[in-house]
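Checklist before submission:
- one chain only
- standard amino acids only
- sequence pasted in full

Submission:
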Amino acid sequence: MHWVFLGGYCLVFLALLAGAALWRHKNRKARAPFPDNARLLRGPGETLRRKLAALDEQIACELLAAFLVPLAVGGALAWIATHVSGPAQVIWLIAAVVTLLTSLIVLVRHLVGGIERWRNTWLGYYGERVVAESLEPLKAAGFRIFHDVPGGDSESPFNIDHVIAGPSGIFAIETKTRRKGRARAGFAGDQIIYDGHALAYPWGEDQHGLEQAQRQAAWLGTWLEQILGHSVPVQAILTFPGWNVITRARGDVTVLNPRQIPAAVALPAENGPALDERQLDLIARQLDTRCRDVEF
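Returned file contents:
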């Protein structure tokens, strides 16, 4: 009878857990002081923040499963030991042990993978927050700044980490937060060198992020052209928070440390504004509408 009680207890526990999750979901907006249509602007790393929340729930479920599976299999082993005898008992015991070990291996692998994804997502989220703080001084100079701007369509969505709209033009910023590795001989451990075509890291070279930054800037330019009725050049910026970036030759993409961005996008004294106030207001309103989708 005690095994029946244990099984019933587990079922009741799971039912209560599922009921609590459903109740939390249904009552999230209950008695909230905000109207149902209230939407906030996306903050820095909003897409990654949502991924972190989903990963938190996934890891919690996997931890619960890691707790319940041994309990269930242990109950099955005890039942087999007391209710089955002879050769059949050995077969069932082996099957139960193999099931337990296989389940634990799968759960542990999922947990390790989930925790690693959480670490990488958190790193990227923090990097976007660092870049956002570096852009704050531009607001005093009349620049409008938007974060995590949704792009693409329903079939191939993406997000532009930061968009700057100001008198000097429009800038689409892609953030790459990369961990530092072991440096080769002759390379500084905190330095990225850009030659206009590729990125040289302490451990090697690649072009990761350059094409993405250029593609997203091109999409933003096309979208703005549909709104304004004329072409608006969008400059692509790739930024690496925490790294010392050295540019030895100009390319289609500007590569910078976040602290270098305000000076790089400032309006040169000898040039007139690329966008007037009316154009900036129109662009800002459209970007505001596109980015205002954060619900309570």
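Reviewer check: The two ends are 47 Å apart (CA to CA).
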